Amino acid sequence: MTEIKIETEFIKLDALLKFANFVMSGGEAKIRIAEGEVLVNGESCTMRGKKLRPGDTVTLDGETVKIV
Q1: Which has the closest alpha carbon to 18: 8, 9, 10, 29?
Q2: Of 4, 31, 54, 58, whose CB neighbour count within 10 A is largest?
Q3: Can you give the C-alpha Rg of the chain in angstroms?
Q4: Which of 57, 67, 63, 50 is nearest to 21 (CA)?
Q5: How many CB atoms are located within 10 Å of the residue 39 CB?
Q6: In this predicted model, what pLDDT tens digit does every residue of 41-63 receive, in sequence order?
Q7: 67 HSE (CA, 13 A, CB side)
Q8: Element (H, E) at 58
Q9: pLDDT confidence bin for 39, thresholds 50/70/90
Q10: DSSP secondary-structure letter at 54?
Q11: What per-residue string of b and e applies to 9-38 under the rule 16 or more CB within 10 Å gives b?
């Protein structure tokens, strides 16, 4: 599991996917989230504006990152 450190209170799901290099563009992030491919804390999430805070995990294609 990779750790991603954020300096702000939260990061939105679509921005995290781009920041962690899970997707190449915001458009790809939107599609993958809408199709339910992204797991937040082990559960499918279809809200691309979901606010993620330290302690949350995001999984896509078998790779997981944890926000710290």
Answers
A1: 29
A2: 58
A3: 10
A4: 63
A5: 14
A6: 999 999 999 999 999 999 999 99
A7: 23
A8: strand 57-60
A9: very high
A10: T
A11: eebebbbbbeebebbeeeeebeebbeeeeb
Of 39, 43, 34, the C-alpha closest to 65 is 39
Dihedral of CA atoms 46, 53, 27, 60 in degrees, nearest 10, equals -70
Residue 49 token pair: 């504006």
Residue 68, token pair as written in the block: 């710290």
Six token digits for residue 66 = 């944890």
User: Residue 3 in contact with residue 16, Cβ under 8 Å?
Assistant: no
β-partners of residue 3 are: 66
Average pLDDT over residues 13-21: 95
